[in-house]
Amino acid sequence: MTKRLPAYAILLIVAGLFAICAVAQQDELRMPGAVYDFDKKNETPKPAPKHDISGVWEPAAGYNDGVAATGAKSMPADGKPEHELPYTPEGRKAFLAHKPTFGVTQVEASLTNDPVPACNPQGFPRIVLHNFRTSRIVQTPENVVVLYEFNKKWREIWTDGRQLPKDPQNPTWGPPDAPESRWWGYSVGIWADDYTFVAESNGFDDRTWLDNAGRPHSDLLHVTERYRRTDLDHLEITITIDDPKMYTKPWEALRLRERLQKPSFDMHEMECAPIETEEYNKAIADPAVEK
Amino acid sequence: MSKRLDVVLAIVSLLCISAPLAAHHGNAAYDESKLVTVKGTVTEWLWANPHCFLKFDVKDEKGNVVHWAAETSNPPDMIGHGWSKNTLKPGDQITVVMLTVKNGRPIGRVRQVTLPDGKVLTNESGLANRSLNSSAPPSPEER
Description:
The complex is a heterodimer of chains A (291) and B (143).
Chain A: H1 7-28, E1 55-59, H2 89-97, H3 126-130, E2 135-139, E3 143-148, E4 153-158, E5 186-193, E6 196-202, E7 222-231, E8 234-242, E9 251-261, H4 274-285
Antiparallel strand pairs in A: 1-2, 1-9, 2-3, 3-4, 5-6, 6-7, 7-8, 8-9
Chain B: H1 3-17, E1 30-46, E2 53-59, E3 65-71, H2 75-80, E4 93-101, E5 107-114, E6 120-122
Parallel strand pairs in B: 3-5
Antiparallel strand pairs in B: 1-2, 1-4, 2-3, 4-5, 5-6
């Protein structure tokens, strides 16, 4: 054997190992009964239906492709310069006050001030920036309802012509409603074209975090979601964050491709239960950091 | 084999196992530089959020029984990896491969379990592709 392998041989070996690695991981990243893109490599896309994003959706690349441990999928808190968010001074201060269990400012589980481990609401958009698993979209004449697997939550995006609350710090749909900030915000949506549904949200309670890495938001947060039905089986979702208190400019937080599942596909339960969390903390999280 | 190829294989292997999957509770409390393998007897298997976890007894070198607790991931992730609430029951003799906490307490994060019938279940994608004696840092997989 020669002492030095030629570059093309190295490349071939690398490509082969990646392929083996990818197959091994895909085999594991599957919810029972789900269909993913790697199951349908040579399919011919069927045309997208107009004004229709309803159905059960699963991340197309594997069930975990929408789960972002180290922060928003498009901008993870991994220390890379290109993922540094455009914080305002107030935004950076708020970020550093958060003690997440993942990302560049991670702490041990028992030392975190993340509201979610204690079963407080993750709210929107954290539900899709942290743990975007199976979802079901239901379209009614008045709204689009999204049901999420994570913590069995749901939200309504109104399509009946109403406008977003004008004052996001005192949000209301108008009389007779009283103003209230919401963990899940206020959402309205329109069809930008036959295949693209765009939702806008504001009126948020600022106690939630944007993601699992502790990225902050204020009560001026404005979220834009785009759902683009690229063909019958696929939906591309993007999320853009705009919050002038925390960030100097809008930034894209998520770009996820989803795959349509059969209507009978059943969402698994993933519910934060204080009684289970207490047991976990007692057995694992607390003793793990005892001196 | 050339040193160049050794380096390539090492990098690819590391990339193969290091993609973070799901997460909620991180690995900050764990020593990620090594994996520990022990044989023990299951005392409890809790199918729960935020993480399913396992309690098991291990005899140390002096014959004393040490009560271990080792976490896995959340129920949907475990289903995705082929586990269920019936995978383990008290009395099962198992072999556990895990990370352990830095403070020396008998607490771990499961990477792989060998069941009494010899079946191997992992809690990490791509684990089967790597040597369990490797010192490469394993990936975080949590809620």
